[in-house]
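Example (one chain per record):
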Amino acid sequence: MTDSAVGIKEKEIFVPKAALHWLAITFLGLGIFMVSTAQTFAQDLEPRRWSHLPTGLNIIGSGAVATDGDITFDPVMQIEDGTFRLYSLGTSYVRSFEWLGKSSRVDIKLPYFYGRWEGNVNGEFAAIRRHGFGDPRVRFSMLLYGAPPLSGSEYMQYRARHPVTTTIGAAVTVVFPVGEYFPDKLINLGGNRYVIRPAIGVLHQRGPWEFELTTSLSFYQDNDEYFGNSTQERDPLWFLQGHVTRQFAKSQFITFSGGYSYDGEYYINGQSLDFTEQTSFLSLAWGKALTKRQSIRIAYIKANTQVILGSSSESWMMSWSLAWSE
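Predicted structure:
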């Protein structure tokens, strides 16, 4: 089915006699939005975010992610065989510095997506493609305990004297609604609303081992330009993630990660859709320093919905980074 045909189906959902079809299309759009949300958290399944870095460090990076998955629905919605394939490219920048006497950092990430979604709605096949920039994210974090702001030889000496450390940090991420968004389209790459995500975490390092735990809560601004001149609301979404990293010889490491998101009920024009998100994540990553400044990382991520409506997917990610100090 062409994009124009899908556009016709999108307009039909507000015909009163087609109430079931309205619900089906609404939940199809919600399921696709869930894919985007799940992938956001999958890419946010990030180890070492509470690592002690020397002040004045700059890191630029780029990465690519390929994702295949299924979208599942309540059978009463009569939506079957929902699948998607999503490719994303991303660039990032990290800067560490001292602020208020604490080790701090800022992370900036900008994603670009290309995807295809398809499925059968009431027995009729529908498919659509989208490509464009997603919503950029900026995260500010501060290490509150266990990581004094140091640089150069002072930092190296401190790390050598402290092979066993515990670091506690806090952060806030802001997602800016500047990604591609069309109010007359049900499927979009941008969310058209701000998201604020405070987080706290702890990292314990013991020799070649690192153990990390982070919890966050996402607060969503209302989207007043949702499809069909509607307003989309969402309750806060809680996310917990943990990581175990093992360092090896030749500057290599392996990380096993797990995560779980919960709640985040949706509302359209103030009416609850009686749905809460519950998704689990598992990841295995390998990384290696190519030179003193460059490194690569390859990761496999699996996301599974724990409720009727949601998405299950498998992703492969590869990234490269370059670091330098002042």
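Caption: The longest helix spans residues 19-43.
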